[in-house]
């Protein structure tokens, strides 16, 4: 049965792969994007999740055009990497505002319709960095670690209404961002990964789709690492 799916930050990279996976399964897929031209084939809604009014407008448009959101994938995120002593207040606050507070906004808004329907699937995209840390990414790691506590708290609140809330924590993924690294940098990262390669965005999408499926109906509050073994033990 076709569901109404929303993927935030669904215009490129992991988010786009997730949107395509749901669309291929026959779901109606909306994506939010902040800049640039969105990909074709989806209900694309321009929305900066740091702005509550834009979030509300985006949800109203999605609800009018494809129905209340039944599956939410909170993927939108930013980085502003800097060593701690050089990191400004703005560097820290802006990353937390998008990655953590922005996720709070979109989850809160989606949960209203899910509570009425007494069903729903929420998947948050965190990162291996949120579990094991990374020098120069204190702001990003804090925001992504915060998603775990947030998801588990919301899972406890909404579980009685048949709403699951889970987290996927990708490792290093072969995207435009990682392709911009030097060959030396890429090789150094691969050396840390037990499986010896980058993930494909489609591999992250497959785990997200599983968590949104009936096969995962009894999984909530879980953190699923898709990182080639990089974060094991965390």
The CATH H-level homologous superfamily: NAD(P)-binding Rossmann-like Domain
Order of helices and strands: EHEEHEHEHHEHHHE
Strand proportion, as a percent range, falls in 15-25%
Q: How many independent structural domains?
A: 1
What integer is the average pLDDT? 96
Report, as a whole number of angstroms, the end-to-end distance.
37 Å
Largest sheet: 7 strands, parallel
**Neighbour order of strands in the largest sheet:** 3-2-1-4-5-6-7
Global outline: globular
CATH topology: Rossmann fold
What's the CATH C level? Alpha Beta
Task: Please give the count of helices.
Answer: 8
Work out the helicity level. 40-55%
Structural class: alpha/beta
| Level-2 CATH architecture | 3-Layer(aba) Sandwich
- Overall strand count: 7
**What radius of gyration results from the CA coordinates?**
17 Å
Poorly predicted tracts of residues: none
Structure, described:
- The chain has 234 residues and is an alpha/beta fold.
- It has one domain (4-173, 201-226): 3-Layer(aba) Sandwich (Rossmann fold), CATH 3.40.50.
- It contains eight helices and seven strands.
- Strands 3-2-1-4-5-6-7 form a seven-stranded parallel β-sheet, with helices on both faces.
- Helix 3 links the parallel strand 4 and strand 5.
- The longest helix is centred in the middle third of the chain and has 29 residues, at 89-117.
- The radius of gyration is 17 Å and the shape is globular.
- The mean pLDDT is 96.
- Its EC number is 1.1.1.100.
- It catalyses: a (3R)-hydroxyacyl-[ACP] + NADP(+) = a 3-oxoacyl-[ACP] + NADPH + H(+).
- One of its GO terms (molecular function) is 3-oxoacyl-[acyl-carrier-protein] reductase (NADPH) activity.
């Amino acid at each position: 049965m076709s569901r109404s799916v929303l993927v935030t930050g669904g215009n490129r990279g992991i988010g786009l792969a997730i949107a395509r996976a749901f669309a291929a399964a026959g779901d109606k897929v909306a994506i939010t994007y902040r800049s640039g031209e969105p990909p074709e084939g989806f209900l694309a809604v321009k929305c900066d999740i740091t702005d509550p009014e834009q979030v509300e407008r985006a949800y109203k448009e999605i609800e009018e055009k494809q129905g209340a959101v039944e599956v939410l994938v909170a993927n939108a995120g930013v980085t502003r990497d800097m060593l701690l002593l050089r990191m400004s207040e703005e560097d820290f606050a802006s990353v937390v505002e998008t990655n953590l507070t922005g996720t709070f906004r979109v989850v809160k808004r989606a949960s209203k319709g899910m509570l009425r329907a007494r069903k729903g699937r929420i998947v948050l995209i965190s990162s291996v960095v949120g579990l094991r840390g990374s020098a120069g990414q204190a702001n990003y790691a804090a925001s992504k670690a915060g998603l775990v506590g947030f998801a588990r708290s919301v899972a406890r609140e909404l579980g009685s209404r048949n709403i699951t809330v889970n987290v996927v924590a990708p490792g290093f993924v072969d995207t435009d961002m990682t392709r911009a690294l030097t060959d030396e940098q890429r090789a150094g990262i691969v050396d840390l990964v037990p499986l010896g390669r980058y993930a494909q965005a489609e591999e992250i999408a497959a785990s997200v789709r599983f968590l949104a499926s009936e096969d995962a109906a009894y999984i909530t509050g879980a953190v699923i690492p898709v990182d080639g073994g990089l974060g094991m033990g965390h």
